[in-house]
What does this fold into?
Amino acid sequence: MPQPEKKEPGFGLDTSIFTQVIETGDAAQRLMLAQQLAAFLAKDDVAAGEREQVVPVVLKLAVDPVLQVRQGLAHGLSGVAGLNADIMFSIISDDDEVALPFLSATPALSHWHMLAVLRVGDEARQACVALRPDISAEATDYILKSCPLKVALLLFDNEAVAFSNEDYHRLYARFGHAGDMVERLLACSDLPLDIRIMQTKRASNRMHQLMAERGWMPANDAAELVADAEETAVLRILTQASDEELAQVVAFLVNKAMLTPSIIVRAACLGEMRVVEQALSHLADIPRKRAQELMQGKGLTGFKGLHGKSGLPASCYWILQAACDVALDEQEEGITLGADDFGRRLIEALMTRYEAMPLKERTRHLEYVGRFAAERARLIAKRLKADLVRAA
It folds into this structure.
């Protein structure tokens, strides 16, 4: 005999009463229904089929004409992880007072949902995504590439976001002219040094332009003052860099034609020989250890050969040679000289060594020390230079 056809068991929910409340009940009754259905969906033991049965009802409540009803529903659903996407986006598209608290809190937002909100949502909704502790890598990437400045700035306040070097460069490329962004970037301890240098260059250019427009001082004086400030800032960045960073940033400076002889001489006058080593190594295209050996006078040609290979002008040879000799004395004596003491020893070397150096050359190199060394050494160099000029 043929077996009777088996029927699938139905779910024990009668949604007609929910519909009746929506159609005939007052706002208080609809709010109570919204809260009850939200609590129902928040339960872990509700079957998937039963969840689907109440979706049409919840969607009606999500567009209820009374704000308090929609707020009650959104608040009740803000902790539901497996929320139906239509319900979620209906709430997100509501007025801000309903949508924004829900969007900030809902655990139902996947990385696809985050991207959808970022693409079609306004700035307020984009901001909610930017500050979420579970922000996805895809959402972060989209904000970095496409969202407005105010939204991008919020990423700095999100502890879940860790910027890569590429991210920093992307932000600077997009918003490098915005003061708020530059301020946040410069406050980051891991900001790539080339960005710090580019910002230094940009700031000095702006200052030069401003001084020229307002005629605060003669053009030549203004140019020298700005260049001095720029080189001082660049050298500070170089001296604070790790060995790996230093190699990268020197290469960057050379590529941008920003590694001037005066920066190298300035470093030498301050005793920052690590910077001098790296600069000469890169310019001469030899390993840094080999450059260090040549600076110590080793090899057939010693420092003279290194200087010639570096392409630096002859006018800075003796000051660099003197700095190398003082650094070697420092190493042999097993001491570490501060900037002022290094500068004083540099003056002593220029005045007492190098018989082949003409008096005119000594005067010029004292002028370098008077410009670039630490404060006390500068004063000594200026006095000595004045004495030599009077004696001549």
Remarks:
- The chain is about 70% helix and 0% strand.
- Confidence is low (pLDDT under 50) at residues 1-11.
- The radius of gyration is 35 Å.
